[in-house]
């Protein structure tokens, strides 16, 4: 998009305010595309991840897992490329601790100790990395994700829940610190951003382990229900093993509504481009199953506006959302909703 085109995308003389809530690999893609299309972006990032480098650091130091936050910071950063390359560098040393760790994760962990929490640490790092927008952890403290399965059993831990291979009935979060006396809560800045947004975007990302952990934080979920912003859910392109096997797009939305106790999703973005047969590398992306099937009648019965288009991007033998196309539709909704409210 040209600079001239960017300057047109304003609401009453300001950039459209978009809050994106989620985690995983899809979040920084959408955040970067929204930023590139001149949105004022706030990313609210899950803090219930316990896998990979983030999980190891969390085991050593009682901090919020930093991996998803690191990638979103880079997506919104205007720092020099060499600074971002160093920040994203992952050690290939054989050292028993450093092997596989990203330098940025270690910096975030160090700043969290220095500043007394992940929230002030990320605001400091945002300034250092010249971030255009806001990156907010969903909570200032580490959270543990819990799942209740359809068979009545329970499991704690994001990675363990996905690996259980059981149908999930519901999820919820608790403070990881057993000495905590208060339920999980989002910082005031997170709530203010949601209430002031033109559009709140959920996803793309794992339904039960990337999106819902955020909404299960009491005051954050309440803000999503009460905000006047348009709530847009980006439906996953593929079903996910251990989470959404056999789900239609409408079943994804129904799970969201069930967890918050009322319908709240206004618009869903649905990919209709076919995934080429045999393109997906099932060994590399072993949690991905089949394309999500569509149930437009059920979506509309839930009060959702359906935007169906080619949102598909194929790369590295994987199936992803095209961030630019998603961002364009999100901003279109922002302007349409604003125009309607002004009438």
From TrEMBL:
Superkingdom as given in the UniProt entry: Bacteria
Gene3D superfamilies per the UniProt record, alphabetical: CofD-like domains (3.40.50.10680)
Compartments in which it is found: Cytoplasm
UniProt-listed GO biological process terms: regulation of cell shape
Keywords (A to Z) from UniProt: Cytoplasm
GO-annotated cellular components: cytoplasm
Annotated coiled-coil segments of the chain: none
Pfam families membership: CofD
Main location: cytoplasm
UniProt GO molecular function: LPPG:FO 2-phospho-L-lactate transferase activity
Its biological purpose: Required for morphogenesis under gluconeogenic growth conditions.
Family note: Belongs to the heat shock protein 70 family. Belongs to the gluconeogenesis factor family.
Name used for this protein in its record: Putative gluconeogenesis factor
């Amino acid at each position: 998009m040209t600079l001239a085109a960017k300057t047109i995308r304003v609401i009453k003389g300001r950039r459209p305010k978009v809050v994106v809530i989620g985690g995983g690999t899809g979040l920084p893609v959408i955040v970067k595309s929204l930023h590139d299309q001149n949105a004022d972006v706030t990313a609210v990032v899950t803090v219930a991840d316990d896998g990979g480098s983030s999980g190891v650091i969390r085991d050593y130091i009682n901090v919020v897992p930093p991996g998803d936050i690191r990638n979103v910071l880079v997506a919104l950063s205007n720092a020099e490329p060499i600074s971002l390359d160093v920040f994203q560098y992952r050690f290939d040393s054989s050292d028993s601790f450093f092997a596989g760790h990203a330098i940025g994760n270690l910096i975030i962990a160090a700043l969290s100790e220095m500043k007394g929490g992940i929230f002030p640490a990320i605001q400091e790092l945002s300034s250092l990395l010249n971030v255009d927008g806001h990156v907010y952890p969903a909570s200032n403290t580490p959270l543990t994700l819990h799942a209740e399965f359809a068979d009545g059993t329970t499991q704690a831990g994001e990675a363990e829940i996905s690996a259980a291979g059981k149908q999930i009935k519901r999820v919820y979060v608790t403070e990881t610190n057993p000495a905590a006396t208060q339920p999980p809560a989002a910082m005031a800045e997170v709530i203010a951003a949601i209430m002031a947004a033109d559009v709140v975007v959920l996803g793309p990302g794992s339904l039960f382990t990337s999106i819902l952990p955020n909404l299960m934080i009491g005051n954050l979920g309440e803000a999503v229900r009460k905000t006047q912003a348009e709530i847009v859910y980006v439906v996953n392109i593929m079903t996910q093993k251990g989470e959404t096997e056999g789900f239609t797009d409408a079943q994804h939305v129904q799970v969201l509504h069930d967890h918050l106790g009322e319908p709240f999703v206004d618009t869903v973005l649905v990919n209709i481009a076919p995934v080429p047969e045999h393109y997906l590398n099932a060994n590399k992306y072993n949690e991905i199953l089949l394309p999500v099937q569509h149930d437009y009648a059920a979506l509309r019965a839930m009060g959702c506006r359906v935007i169906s288009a080619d949102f598909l991007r194929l790369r590295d033998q994987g199936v992803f959302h095209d961030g630019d196309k998603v961002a364009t539709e999100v901003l279109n909704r922002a302007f349409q909703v604003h125009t309607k409210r002004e009438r």
